[in-house]
Prior knowledge:
The complex is a heterodimer. By secondary structure, chain A is an all-alpha fold. Chain A folds into two domains: 3-63; 94-181, no CATH class. Helices cover 71% and strands 0% of the residues of chain A. Chain A has helices spanning 3-26, 40-63, 77-86, 95-131, 137-158, 168-180. The longest helix of chain A is centred in the middle third of the chain and has 37 residues, at 95-131. Chain B is mainly α. Chain B is built from 23 helices and two strands. In chain B, a hairpin with a 6-residue loop joins strand 1 and strand 2 (191-192). The N and C termini of chain B lie far apart (74 Å). Classes of the chains: A mainly alpha, B mainly alpha. Chains A and B meet through helix 1, helix 2, helix 3, helix 4 and helix 5 of A and helix 8, strand 2, helix 10, helix 13 and helix 19 of B.
Amino acid sequence: MPPKVKLVLPYGLMLAVSGWLYWVATRIDVDTGGRITPAAWPKAIIVFMALLCLYEIVKRLLSGTENRAQTTFLPDAEEVAEQEEKRGLAPVSRPWMLAGGIGLITLYVILVPFAGFFLSTVLFLAAFPLAGGFKRPVFAATLGIAGGFLLIVVFMRVAYISLPLGVGPFRDVSLGLMRLIGVT
Amino acid sequence: MEILGHLMGGFAAVFTPTNMLVMAIGLVLGMLIAVLPGLTLVMGVILALPFTYKMGVGPALVLLTAMYVSGTYGGAITAILFRIPGEPMDVPLLWDGYEMTRKGQAALALGWALLAALVAGLASSIVMVALTQPIAKIALSFSTPEFFAVVFFGLASVVTLSGSSVVNSLISLCVGLLIATVGVDAIYGAERFAFGLPFLQDGIEFLLVMVGAYGIGEVLTRMLEGFQGAQPATRDAQGRFITAFPKWAEMVKMKATFLRGTLTGLLVGVVPGAGATVSSFVAYGIESQYGKNGKALGTGAPEGIVTAKAAATASVGGAFIPLLAMGIPGSGATAIILAAFLLHGIQPGPQVFTHSPALIYLIFASVFVATVGKVILGYFAIKPLCRVLEAPEAVVSAFVVVFCFVGAFAQRNSLPDLYVMAAFGLIGFLFERYRFPLAPLVLGTILGPLAESNFMTTMVSYNNDWTVFFTRPVSGVILALSIAGLLWPVIRAMRESRRKNQTDGQTQAP
């Protein structure tokens, strides 16, 4: 990706989203008898946001750098990172690990309504540490089962929180487990 | 006297067996969370929220308050002993605390930190008790333009105090304010940005934004960094895990530093969205500029530990003042406590002092008791707390994700809330990645409805005359201060850039 495009990409995206949201806001149609409309507040915010994005895009394109305006007190994140790097604490980047994590979290969200909280959580607790670089699969699997059971007890038995039971056979497993821990 | 009487009632309520048990659990959990590098204080309080759904409002508030208070100390231990800041607020402790450890003064460094936490904690609690009710009384006389101005001030402050780019902070705030407009509008009942989806018609709960952005977003950020935080615990230079208090004369010599740190923490804590981290950095900056021993900061000076820890601790008392007096959270953790209030059908603000004063004084008393409890725990539990560091971060993070899911789901038993929360997890991660600070986003979501309703009501009441915000003295002054606060960084950056250009021009001139 060309460096200048990379520099303005987040702001360009936000500008596009602002344009679309403004169009959606124009369709909020209520007769207010001449008083301020319910679309006025979001429209004002959207216009302000679009102007900010536009300002940042123009500024970055002209200067070719981020050229950030410093706020009053907090140190700049980049400066802190540079200091840490000098001290030998340079952060590493693991995009594949991140992709795995996002994938597992997405899968967990999708799985919970079907497989129920217990089974999905057992699988998630076993798989997520492995995706995060934990190198003891047997321990992870044991942790998944023990952790899932413990969480069911803590949430359903102690905190009385109702959690998804799943569908079909998965529901039967969840119900059996609830009977086992004394939740009726 | 009335306040003192209520406070005694608050202490009596805290010392019931249930509340003491909950307090003890909160203190331990808060300390553990602060010690673990992958977990932040706000995240920890979020994780505890599901357990409060079925609790009574009293124990729920005691639990969250204890976690909040205790969470401001634990990270100091790891920062001083192992150079691992458990919380962002503990970063300044690396510069002096760890330096003292390297000089073989780890126990003394811990002693200074503990002392600062105790003194600032108690002092800020006294100020909190003394000021909250009078401020709430003043707030009772406010009309909608004044309330709008106060909320605007909070939003403006969070912009200037978070992140390093004003534009990014403002964009983040706009996104938060827009999220708050989703659903049916309160005045006309018009549907906005719901796109025909039933779960969006009810609006997006700020809790989902917080849980997603702070919880899942932080896990993803740390995952990208390869979960580097967890390192095997090692002992300090002398192989000890103990705390040693400084001598009385040394403490007296440091009284100005204690005072500066505590006052800074209180003042910054009051500002919505600023919280312990900003307090800690600001106090450190002030101490390095105005402290007697300011130049020595960063080389293992106890002043650096005292001021940072005192400010972070005092910010707790400060953050409770706007929450309880006006219903405006002063920090991320108090935003969760606000959620706990709302979940139990109570809207914090000036009216609470009339309807449920016992609840307010229960919180006040909890802050006092938790401050003392935190110090006792911090003194005696260093060894087991350090052991916690050995837990693999990938495993801890897996549990964090599950707790976030339960927190998001259990509030309304709604599966779509899970998807919304996960989406905000990704948004939170992307915001962090591209340096859009999260605090304005979250505060915009929380304060957006309050800002909008006060703005709209004023406009309707005053026939669309927006000048009323500036012509009424109180709102006019507050708005002028807010605008000045917003413009200050921009003016400063322009001046710096001009100065830099001049210097460059002079060096290039023959």
